[in-house]
Amino acid sequence: MTTDDFRESGLRFPEGFTFGSATAAYQIEGAVAEDGRGPSIWDAFSHTPGKVLNGDTGDVADDFYHRVDEDLDLIKSLGLGAYRLSIAWPRIIPAGTGEVNEAGLKFYERVIDGLIARDIEPVVTLYHWDLPQPLQDRGGWTVRETGYAFAEYARVVGERLGDRVGVWTTLNEPWCAAYLGYASGEHAPGIRDEEAALKAVHHLNLAHGLAVSALREVVTKPDAKYSVTNNLASVYAADPQNPEDVDAKRQIEALRNRAFTDPQLRGFYPQDLIEDTRHITDWSFVRDGDLELIHQPIDLVGINYYNTDTVRRGAEHSTEGTPFPGATRVEWVDQPGPFTEMGWNIAPQGLYDLLVATHEAYPEYDLVITENGAAFADEVVVEGGEKRVHDPLRIDFLQRHFVAAHRAIRAGVPLTGYFVWSLMDNFEWAFGYSKRFGLVYVDYETQERIAKDSARWYAKLAGSGIIPE
Ligand code: FCB
After folding, report:
1. Which residues are registered as beta bridge partners of 269?
2. Ligand 1 near 437 CB (within 6 A)
3. In a domain, 397, yes or no
4. Dist. CA 334 → ligand 1 center (Å)
5. What is the number of domains present in the chain?
6. CB contact burial 224-248 (16+ within 10 A = b; e otherwise)
7. Which of 341, 371, 434 to mutate to test the pocket of ligand 1 (most atoms within 8 A of CB)?
8. Packing angle between helix 102-117 and helix 145-161, nearest 10 degrees?
9. pLDDT averaged per 10 residues in sequence order, the chain, 469 residues
10. Tell me, what CATH number does 396's domain have?
11. Does 388 map to a domain?
12. What is the pTM of this model?
């Protein structure tokens, strides 16, 4: 990996480039027991002692459920052209299958209509990890029925909102849902079973394909676009001349990237992935015809990017306990800093490399950065009677990554949009409320929102299309 100075301003994005921000239902909504919402795996997980830092839960979160108008005004005040939100499956079909909860549909109708009224394009994700608990009780993503249940849910949402939502994303980061949920157990449902994780990979892919087909049948908005968001890894071999390090990189890329993109975008599972995982599973859960069901025509490929990985050949049991079922003798090399509060290395070059590599592998798709952003230890200061949050590190982070995106466009990558994670501080999964990713600060005691300096910086970029100082 080369180091480069990505600090640059004055670059102009192409006309029509989408500047947005993103959130997810469980991370912001709260109101977990209101208006007929059923429990999800994240309710169960966060209420299990020891799973989430400080025992935090999404019970209240940012209370978005009760503050929709105020928060949509906030997005408007930043001048953003698009907002990526997720719909909570347990609000729409509380038991996972069967009865539809009208109040849930009404809630999202209100959010979507509110966005459209403010001239903000809604970009809807159907699954950002909040699986209805009753489906988990029947096997969750280890069983194919969950994929069919997802398609049923997608159809219900598509029927109601398909006349006004123009961008549909099936899944957010199936890598996390499968491997953190079922292999390392760091995320809900907290299972540690390597074969279960690989089954989850397949059934999530299946769910994606089935949902695209269902949506296409019911969505009526002309030119609606379909997509999936993967958190593809930007992986490097510690020594690119060393075949064993290169093989370590190949294994991680197969598990992390190609296990999803090849079936979704090409209609096959990588042969090397199947070989690498033979000692765990024979993949007989992939039934005849599944790959055709998964491989549906889509328009956009969403990429979530945060940091890079460098790997080398490791000791015999070096992958035990990692969320990489089947990987053998892989060791992660400490990355050079600087780091964010998550301990993730800041590497705009990694974003550039990933965009270029994804475009080379799948040249016919438009790409969108559906998440990128950073957690820092933000503090509120009072100046001239006004509350402020000075976050120069986040501004620096965003500037460098927007420059990387701009360079990728110049290199020929059809990148059409960029969504900053996140609109506002929120429930950061296993880290609870301890990590602040927002452009807007949230005081969890009072639910006050305070735009950080980075929000003002981003508003300038969104308003002009030019990367500010
Ligand atoms: C991604 C998730 C998102 C958020 C960011 C920091 O993995 O999609 O919900 O937690 O990381």
Report:
1. none
2. yes
3. yes
4. 22
5. 1
6. bbbbbbbbbbbbbbbeeeeeebbbb
7. 371
8. 50
9. 74 98 99 98 98 98 98 98 99 98 99 98 99 99 99 99 98 98 98 98 99 98 98 97 98 98 98 98 98 98 98 95 95 96 98 98 98 98 97 98 98 98 99 98 98 98 97
10. 3.20.20.80
11. yes
12. 0.98
